[in-house]
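User: Okay, second chain of the day. Same drill as before: sequence in, structure tokens out.
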Amino acid sequence: MKLKAYISLFLIVASTSFVAAQVKFEAKVSKTKLGINERLRVDFEMNTDGDNFNPPSFSDFTIVGGPNQSVSHSWINGVRSFTKTYSYFLAPKKTGTITINQATIEIEGEIYKTSPVAVQITSAVNRPNDPDNAEIVADDNLHLIAEISKGNPYLNEAVTVVYKLYVSEDIGVSTFREIDSPKYNDFWSQNIDLKGNKIQNIQFKGRPYRFLVIKQVVLYPQKSGKLEIEPLSLDVTVEVPSNRRDFFGGRMMSQVHKTVSAGSRSLQVKPLPEIGKPENFTGAVGNFDFKVTTSKTELNATESLQARLEVKGTGNLKLFQLPKLTLPSSLEVYEPEHTQNIRTTIDGMQGGIADSYTIVPQFKGKYPIPNVDFSYFDLKTESYKTVSSGELVINVLEGPTNSTHTDSNIATVGEGKQRVIMNNDQFAFVKSEANLKPISSEPFLNSSWFWSSFLLPLMAIPLAMVFRKKKAERRADVQGNKIRKADRLAKKYLGEARKSLGQKEAFYIALEKALHNYLKAKLHIETSDFSKDRIKELLLKRQVEESVIDEFVTILDSCELARYTPFSEVTMQHDYDKAAQTISVIDKQIR
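Assistant: Same drill. Structure tokens below.
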């Protein structure tokens, strides 16, 4: 028995070793020594199909092509052969010995690895001027250029970088992609959308070329001195004519992958001059207009107005702060709302920014909004400019008088405040003893709750029948339903006015709007038809009594007069009640 067990074990090990010996997975390189300006092809080849291929990290290379997958089947003398290959095209990033680490793949449940491969990278090699070499032809006819609008800008001055790909008429380009994108450190940057980008013809290096704008970027330098712009690199698939001909005699094209770079560029950024710099300067550079406006100049106490500080023009609009608004202490001021309306074009930022302050006066009087200065550096004159808003005065017509000061324009806050002294009995309301009572242990079966839950559904049946009968009677009461509908409609349209009772202007605006909306809904007319004669004519046609129409018109007159004459809260309540009653009566009478 032991002999048979040994034989079985030997056969299993031998068969496993045989199968393992048949599987091949290896890495092959096109050359083991190459210049840094040359390309390396790496093939990962297997003779049995596998899954979950995992390539090594090509951190010392730029992948300019791949992975490309190819599969080959063949039968020779009844023997089947299979080959599957993953191919990469690599451009070295540095000189020296670089090791291509192991790749892995899963074949029939087993993990196989390639052996590491070392390649020697030398400095750039001189290649012979071979007109039949596709790579040489591509190098001589393909260029990526970065055009910079200004080499010595001021701090926060817009600089435009335009990347153009130049291609001679001797070759073609099928695809390209970015492989190294600039980070634009020390710059505020924004890409500009390329809309309607077209290929254009140009003379470049004394030869006819075509060029395409690949990328446009607007930069605002954020520090002075020498700043570097990192290079943009592209992987380009180039079609190069060869000496081979196809079946019809046409010239065949060779396809090669080329890496082109715009190269590193540098700017010498000038600092803004210190001589003449205003104290309130916050970094604005460009050409701007500045103004301060208010939504009202006259209002009553506790009403609100908007004060708006606005800057418009061309420059670094997103990169500076607006000046602050200083107001008398008797004016309650809320934090400003910042808004932007900026578009960034090839020439830089254009548009405007604004801070809107909500102001609520507390006392009657005249309140000045002091002059506000805004300073910026003008690039055309290379000097600082200051724009002043001028003083504005807010006249508060009605409200309490500030008795703490003789000058109603000045009011301070925080006077007369006392320190709060904590009471030692501040936690006296917390109970120290709980009044707990035991829960009754009476069984639920045959209890009062048991019989109630049993009988209540039976008692609900006659109640539901009575409710249904009352509902049918209510539905049949056409006149009563019309009256109730009219009352609901009046409350609906007058709801906003009711909320504004006590605030004369807001109340009468809401009341007038409610009356107009009611007429729109009932008479199907537009605002342009809201003349009193037209309203009378339409309501009379709909069989509304003339006295009711006169009441409605009187309420409209009150809404118009209320803006110019003093009205008490009693008068507002009277007008509200009259409007609700009139709308209800009209809705009952209208046909």
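The chain has four domains: 20-122, 134-269, 285-396, 478-589.

User: Thanks, on to the next one.
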